Amino acid sequence: MNIVVLNGSPKGELSVTLQYARFAAKKFPQHSFRFFSIAQNIKRLERDAAVFQEVMDAVKEADGVLWAFPLYFQLVSSQYKRFIELIFVRQQQPAFAGKYTASLSTSVHFFDHTAHNYIHAICDDLQMKYVGAYSAGMYDLMRKTERKRWLDFAESFFDSVSRQIPVARVYPPLSTGTSIFQPGASKAALDADGKKILVITDEQNQAGNISAMIKSFTGNFRKEVEVICLTDIDIKGGCLGCCKCGLDNVCEYAGKDGFIDFYNEKVKKADIVVFAGAIHDRYLSAQWKTFFDRSFFNTHMPTLIGKQIAFLISGPLGQIPNLRQILAAYAEFQETNLAGIVTDETGSSGEIDLLLTELAGKLVRPIADGFMPPMTFLGIGGRKIFRDEVYGMLRFVFQSDHRYYKGRGLYDFPHKNYKARRLNLMMTMLTKLPPFRKKFLKMLKDEMVKPIRHVADHK
Ligand SMILES: Cc1cc2nc3c(=O)[nH]c(=O)nc-3n(C[C@H](O)[C@H](O)[C@H](O)COP(=O)(O)O)c2cc1C
Question: In a mutational test of the pocket of ligand 1, which residue from 71, 117, 388 has the highest number of ligand atoms less than 8 Å from its CB?
């Protein structure tokens, strides 16, 4: 069986993820493997048609394709994202159609599911036969049980290919065809009250819906709002995954391009940040992905704390709940208030105009000042994962995160609440006694609400 491995790590041969694929190749010598360093060679793949064609030809000849990638900002790296865009732009879908496929990632499990959902949906769009996702922890391969688990998955993948199992499409095709949005007249009625508003976009085409939405949105303010296009910033490339930033947040690109200054001087210093972009396949553009990946020089620390943020999206966001979750989680991780997301997918131009006016008002209303909603599972779960990783194995790599987490009291375990510890011990013992247990279960509901009811009644 011929298996093609599409390596999505910008580190190429030094990829952790690649070692999992290499391990499987060694353990299943009856199959032949071809490895392609996709993310690391993205510039060549873009520039040199023959290099790109070689990958397409290998995919065409393959019995199975393995998407092997590291998690980057809840998805794949910007370089891998660009490769996926190229497949569609260059109309290479036929090379992938009908091929059996699976995805493999390594990560710390922060939004690994959204990355696999994305790749699964892309495989469905390519009419591939997607048989499963394997999300490994970075160093799982060092453990015997995890090696077996991975080999079992790989074997089941090969078995699916050899038996040509039936596979159902999970993600329905996107129905596109948004109509042209015509912004209404500028209202110029809102005062930003000295707050700095920054709109970031990736749209070069000033005739597109995103530019029109930005025009309508910014037209609500009396004073001009700063709009920056990512294509006007000197960005030399995507994140290289080198993790040099871990020690003290100095990026490998420092002094080599304009991204870090842009992020520090514009994004961090704004009070309100509006992200505007069109959907490309099942995410925003690779250009936007580069923005998120490159902001990793701030490692696992939120940099937009207390800001009001919003998204203006052109395209079928309503059909991609995975992307909506990614945006919501980004807002929570950054400790911002996501004031809203306005899209052009439904409603007339007039209705979209009204939504944009409402959003503009919401962002600058005094009540929005410093308001931050409580986090959901997305933010709380994510923060705990990073906290545990930085406290544990990754501390010496991410030293600045460690200083920050320690300084902000984010290492809140094991807790020192001795009252709770004593109570837990005593109650655990007492509930072993049948008469007490009976009484306890009878009182439980009353006792659970008692302290909170006291606050509600008396504060
Ligand atoms: C820019 C960047 C973004 C990352 N984002 C995530 C993430 O969203 N979730 C996660 O669990 N790990 C994330 N990681 C960690 C990598 O996925 C992890 O280290 C992976 O094992 C690296 O694999 P590789 O050596 O094959 O590139 C990120 C790492 C980098 C450098």
Answer: 71
